Prior knowledge:
By secondary structure, chain A is an all-alpha fold.
Amino acid sequence: MSAAQSADSDRQALNELFSVTYEELRRLAGSVRRDDPGATLSPTALVNEAWLKLADSPSVARTSPLHFKRIAARAMRQVLIEAARRRNARKRGGGVLPVTFDDGLQENPASSEDLLALDAILEDLARINPRQAMMVESRFFGGLGVAEIAQLLEVSEATVLRDWRAARAWLARELRGRC
Amino acid sequence: MLDGDRWARIQTLFHQAAEHPAAEWRAYLETACPGDPGLAAEVLELLEEDARASLLDRPLAEVAHELLHPDGAAPIPTEQFGPYRIREMLGEGGMGVVYLAEREDLGSRAAIKILRDAWLSPARRERFASEQRTLAQLNHPAIAQLHDADTLADGTPWFVMEFVEGVPLTAYCRARNTSIQGRLRLLRSVCEAVQHAHRHAVIHRDLKPSNILVKNDGTVKLLDFGIAKQLESLEVPVEQTQTGLRLMTPAYAAPEQITAGRIGTHTDIYSLGVVLYELLAERLPYDLTGRTAAEIESLITEQIPERPSLAARAAGGSSDAAVRAGTVGPAAWADLDVLCLTAMHKDPLRRYRTVDALIRDIDHYLAGEPLEARPDTVGYRVGKFVRRNRGPVFVAATVAAGVIALVVFYTVRLTRARNAAVAEAARTQRIQRFTMSLFQGGEREVGPADSLRVVSLVDRGVQEARTLDGEPVVQAELYHTLGRIYQQLGNLARADTLLQTALDRRRSLFPAGSPEVTGSQVALGLLRVEQARFEEAETIIRNALEESSGALQAGHPAVAEATLALGQVLQARGNYDEAIRVAEEAVRLYTPPGDSVTPELAASLAELAGDHFFAGHYETADSLNQRILGMYRRLYGERHPQIASVLFNLGASQFDRGHYAEAERFHRQGLAVYQSFFGPDHPETAYAMTMLGRALIFQNKFAVGDTLLRKSLAIRERVFGPDNPVVASTLNELGSVAFQQDRLDEAEAAWGRMAEIYKKAYDNKHYLIGIALSNLASVYVKREQYLRAESLYRDVLERYRGMLADDHVNVGITRIKLGRALLRQRRYADAAAESFAGYQILIQQANPGVSFLKAARTDLALAYDSLRQPDRARRFRAELADTIRPAP
């Protein structure tokens, strides 16, 4: 197999993996809601479950669990952003309730706007520092731990913590500015 | 907008400033970036943000849950779907969304399924189309029908199917508090639908209650063939089935779905088993909440689920599940356990082979007939030496539910499907597994008392076996197995005929020394032991050992089996020295390389421990049993019946040495294990209660002991029937309590009944009859009816002769008792002779201090006084004083 062919088949595998993951997360998120409205939806649990189910499909078999988690985090983001978009679309015209985060009140529900804003800001961050954007995506959407991210990015855990802290502060400030 | 360089500078400053206290940030930043107040201000903002809470700190769960809340669902499509118009959303899954639709011209309702995000991949479109094709070919009243299919203008595919207005199976049963029978009937309907799918080579792969709806009229509908798989043919389990994208729900997923094994009809059978489990126990077999993928995988592929009967009972005393559990008897629960756990066996080969077989067993259950499936062996139990000997602790033949199941299996299955493949599978797997469970005492979910029912079934089995002339190998195997069952049932004459026939047949089919012939010889030899024909037993088994050693490789399992059997014969004959040597050889043969532990090794060690126990080497027996205990802990964990069996043996050893408090401790531990494993009303628990009760009685804790024994008696009478030897052993203990409390009429009644049971069970020829009569005679001694007692004792000794070694402990005890009856008649010389003979037997076997030895010494001192042999009298008085004096 030539290098070009190999790259091509890898890309294909990745595409397939992505769509499968997306679908699985969609399904799982739906089932949590249907079966048990009070259940918490932990991204880590979802990603693990997705891995469990997909680990043997041909496209996933060649993927390391860590890499899988990384892609699953991306899929999770997609699922949630899609949900947020739909929600936003329905709200439009009904007036949007302003939601603030600066008081740190945990009972304040996150709004679809926040999530869409976060999505957009993450895109911005990805343009200036892809590594940090990926880190945030993995951690926030995929529930990856610091050690896992360090391993994934081949940097030290201290570096991950530093990068995360700065990115978090910047994202939070941007978020405040846009909402 | 930010660029990479500036962002890098911002971060550096951010981290440096963060090292300082908040009050110094501004000053620090002004020095660090002179001439760029914008930069300083930005970093300062970030530092302030760093100290605040942010969306990014929130658990995504919260965010996701909010977003995925029902009113956040996809908008209802406004398009026209053929003649249908969408009314409301019914549900959504990974694949698509299902809507309730109305057919405007007819006013009828239907469900429309739309593929969400069809653009995402061709694989999804293919899968959606596949579900549609699957539904199109299935036409069954319990499967939702496909009506129509098409594609929207934007390419989104959709199809219309029957709208089912119903409730998920489990919710339906819960809401109506449906009876167990009712639940099984509903599951049967589901099975029929699945069977229909299987006949069309369709595997559902995602069976779970939410895909099984029950309508108001009680009819069942199977939905969602979304990940169903079309097999090319049901006969050929295809490997490639698992390469599909596996999207099932883990709670109902079979191990092969988790581990990418072969998917087939057996996969659906597993899921049906899980659904049944949930229906019976009101909970899932495994709690998967909050588990990692690896944990889920190991739970589903490795952990044996709790039996549904226990899970249902554990549901809590007043819950509906527990109340319902109480409406089903223990024998029926045993069947339900077998039914459910066979369906969800981890090994696909050991599940019901077809849904049809599952349906048949449901029908058997509903009709109150024996199942075709059989329980797995829960565990091997040693316990043998505590039981077989030492009269009081005898526990007789096992009548396992497996007996019934096996016989039905043979009579129905084997004769129905006579092809060689089935017969071979039956021969090698079923028979062996069954005999293992039968003889090693694992599962004893005994049917209600009805040994008649069992006997008539075994009889039927024999008749069926006779018709198998064309298959002599299977026939011989059947005779062999049925013979062993008869032995277990106590019908030694029939067992004799069958085992002898099996041996003859095998001798004509297989060479001498072959595993088959050896197996038959061993079985016949062990029957001879039970018939108390010890010499013949020894000849047969020595023969088996010699022939198999000559013909087979050293260390062949058949040789090891014969060696172990020889050890058992020698133990039964009371030839403990040689028994020990032989058992040591068996241990050697069963010792696997390395330091691994096998049940066979533990069993042979248990035999050896038994030999030492009977030889009176209590400490060796104890240390062996401690070793066995360690092995079983490795093999089975802490709360397994095997553990308890060793505890009982350790207790018996303490008991025999008169350490009743120690014995009590071991037996209490054992009882606790049995109670939690078998439940409070199980015959095994009854056995443990008897052991403990006995230890209590010997400490004069009569009230507690008596209560335990009566409980035990009630369980055993109910389970085994009033004439079973097992009942007799409890009667023995109850007789002891009554006797020691001077309730002589009760003692006489208990021991008299005990003797009658043994006479009936063992054709008037067994040393246990002697033990019963010997105890009965004690009543007469106490009533001062010495002649009557004497003649009973002599009868007993006559029975023992030839059956037990002359220096067997039971012979010793009886001679001491006879001595006392003679002493009371003032026949001092005769009394001294008997008491001394008994004394000499016991002194070699057990440690001084046992009550019988004390009695012998007392009587001998008196007798020698009267015979004017003061030296001898003094000797026994001195020994008596030694044993009575409290330990320093």
